[in-house]
Amino acid sequence: xxxxxxxxxxxxxxxxxxxxxxxxxxxxxxxxxxxxxxxxxxxxxxxxxxxxxxxxxxxxxxxxxxxxxxxxxxxxxxxxxxxxxxxxxxxxxxxxxxxxxxxxx
Length: 105
Prior knowledge:
The chain is mainly alpha-helical. The chain contains six helices and no strands. Helix 1 (2-10) runs antiparallel to helix 3 (20-48).
């Protein structure tokens, strides 16, 4: 998410004058779309690991407990994805660190 936002800001953002927050929002969009695209691969991996697929009948699928569990699973998945997307922030330097590394004339 951070990497995508940075690249958008430095490329498309410069051309079209997109703000930093606009570039961050577009980076989040890229990240979310990638997450949607990878969902099938995550399910395939879970199947290969031997995790059972729920075989629910329509009545069970419509229960409030099932819908709540599904929504909570999505929230947890998006939260983990956002946290992983912020991982590159650990490698960015603050302005103070950059100022300390600049050679003094």
